[in-house]
Write a structure and sequence with these properties.
mainly alpha
Length: 141
């Protein structure tokens, strides 16, 4: 993509953009009170894709950067970098919890589940924005 990033990180950024678009489309289906089965499948696919990305790309990159991050933790960019996986893993765990709570598809959603979904969506969006900021900070600027 014309940055200093290795191809795998460029591809992961594109995957994360795809995932956030999938999440927004799933939220649209829910908001329009359209087919909730489609909503569930869309959101489940986002959770699975993100889990794969965490396990294969982001997790190993984070663990490989622990020394750098701990030695530069007083710098804002390192603090923001550490915040990204905290929010991202939290969103992923909450996403898994929502998917499991609503299996089988068509389970009734109570107010608590809707609040959990909205909270998960907000945290996930924030993690995405911070992750994009980290990418730009390390690979573009």
């Amino acid at each position: 993509m014309g940055t200093r990033a290795e191809l795998v990180y460029d591809l992961n950024l594109l995957l994360q953009i795809l995932i956030i678009l999938v999440l927004f489309s799933g939220a649209y289906f829910a908001k329009m009170k359209a087919n909730y089965k489609i909503h569930g499948k869309i959101m489940s696919s986002a959770v699975v894709l993100n889990a794969i990305s965490i396990l294969l790309v982001m997790g190993p990159r984070l663990f490989g950067s622990i020394g750098f991050l701990t030695s530069t933790i007083t710098q804002l960019r390192s603090q923001v970098t550490v915040l990204h996986p905290i929010l991202g893993v939290t969103a992923e765990i909450l996403g898994i919890a929502v998917v499991v709570a609503l299996r089988p598809c068509g389970s009734k959603m109570g107010t608590k589940v809707k609040i959990l979904m909205r909270t998960t969506f907000a945290i996930w969006t924030l993690a995405f924005l911070i992750g994009a900021t980290v990418y730009i900070t390390f690979y573009v600027l």
